């Protein structure tokens, strides 16, 4: 793919998303289906109650359609491409079921954690099977250490990586525009890595995801007209983990996805501290809520977190190249 063609997948995915999204929002508003706000969340989030959700379904559809078009056109319909779309669709389906139960069945909890985990693990096992079938090794490359052959333990790593980052992005998706902005940065970084590795199949998915997220951001920025929902966040996290593995640069996700990691750690620290001491470390977790409770506006949190994402992505690329 030439540089002049790089923007075509972005543009088409963007166009599909912005074309469908108003119809999607209109349907939810007409049926009065909206997001329920958690009681334990910040009180000022109550004004967001009733805002349409499940917007991630629209940009996932845009990503799949656009990726298929360009993969067929460019002869990039590979096993890696297929298994990456498989993770997108499966994790997106899990999120869709969770959102559907919350919104249409009026059960605020959706799928329980065990049901989600089983689905995520099944996806990870299929991903690892195809990964090995392609002849890829069980080797994990770590800067400063070298290549480590983990043997069958690499399969366990794959499961932890996919499940962990899928849930990490899901936890991060708590403010208007936060994950849509971070996602564009993360997938843009992996697009550069895929370009340098001449992995056209992965590059196409990264570019179409950027376009879909850009289109979604127009409706998701504060004040959000629609939320992403689990259908979008679970799929995005799973895709990022899968891409880092397919590019054999797993370690990069700890830097590129540092915000997702910190959000997850803040929840783990909060829960552990409260169980052991009865005291909370943060005013509220995930950590973006802590900053909200400290008087930061959503826009300020978004911008600071996006800057962190940009800086860490730049550091990652400097380490690599």
UniProtKB/TrEMBL annotation:
The main location class comes to membrane
Task: Tell me which UniProt keywords the record has, alphabetically.
Answer: Cell cycle, Cell division, Cell membrane, Cell shape, Cell wall biogenesis/degradation, Magnesium, Membrane, Metal-binding, Peptidoglycan synthesis, Transferase, Transmembrane, Transmembrane helix
Q: In which pathway does it act?
A: Cell wall biogenesis; peptidoglycan biosynthesis
Gene from which this protein is expressed:
mraY
Q: What is this protein called?
A: Phospho-N-acetylmuramoyl-pentapeptide-transferase
Cofactor(s) for this protein?
Answer: Mg(2+)
Q: Which family does it belong to?
A: Belongs to the glycosyltransferase 4 family. MraY subfamily.
Q: Organism source for this protein?
A: Vagococcus proximus
Q: So what does this one do?
A: Catalyzes the initial step of the lipid cycle reactions in the biosynthesis of the cell wall peptidoglycan: transfers peptidoglycan precursor phospho-MurNAc-pentapeptide from UDP-MurNAc-pentapeptide onto the lipid carrier undecaprenyl phosphate, yielding undecaprenyl-pyrophosphoryl-MurNAc-pentapeptide, known as lipid I.
Traced from the root, the source organism's taxonomic lineage reads:
Bacteria, Bacillati, Bacillota, Bacilli, Lactobacillales
One GO term in the molecular function aspect is: transferase activity
Subcellular localization is given as: Cell membrane; Membrane
């Amino acid at each position: 793919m030439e540089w002049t063609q790089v923007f075509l997948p972005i543009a088409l995915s963007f166009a599909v998303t912005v074309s469908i999204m108003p119809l999607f929002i209109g349907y939810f508003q007409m049926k009065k289906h909206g997001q329920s706000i958690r009681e334990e969340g910040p009180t000022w989030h109550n004004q967001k109650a009733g805002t349409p959700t499940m917007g991630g379904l629209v940009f996932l559809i845009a990503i799949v359609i656009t990726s298929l078009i360009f993969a067929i056109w460019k002869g990039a319909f590979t096993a890696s491409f297929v298994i990456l779309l498989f993770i997108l669709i499966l994790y997106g389906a899990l999120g869709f079921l969770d959102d559907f139960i919350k919104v249409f069945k009026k059960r605020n909890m959706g799928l329980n954690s065990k049901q989600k985990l089983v689905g995520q693990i099944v996806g990870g096992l299929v991903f690892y099977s195809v990964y090995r079938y392609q002849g890829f090794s069980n080797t994990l490359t770590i800067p400063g250490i070298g290549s480590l052959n983990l043997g069958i333990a690499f399969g366990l790593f794959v499961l932890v990586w996919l499940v962990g980052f899928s849930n990490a992005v899901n936890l991060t998706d708590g403010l208007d525009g936060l994950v849509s902005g971070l996602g564009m940065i993360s997938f843009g970084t992996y697009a550069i890595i895929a370009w340098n590795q001449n992995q056209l199949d992965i590059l196409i998915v990264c570019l179409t995801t950027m376009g879909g997220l850009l289109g979604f951001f127009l409706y998701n920025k504060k004040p959000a007209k629609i939320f992403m929902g689990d259908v979008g966040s679970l799929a995005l996290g799973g895709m990022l983990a899968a891409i880092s593995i397919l590019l054999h640069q797993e370690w990069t996700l700890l830097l590129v996805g540092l915000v997702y990691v910190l959000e997850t750690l803040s929840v783990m620290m909060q829960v552990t501290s409260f169980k052991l001491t009865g005291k909370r470390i943060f005013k509220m977790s995930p950590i973006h809520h802590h900053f909200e409770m400290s008087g930061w506006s959503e826009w300020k949190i978004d911008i600071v977190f996006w800057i962190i994402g940009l800086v860490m992505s730049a550091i990652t690329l400097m380490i690599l190249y």
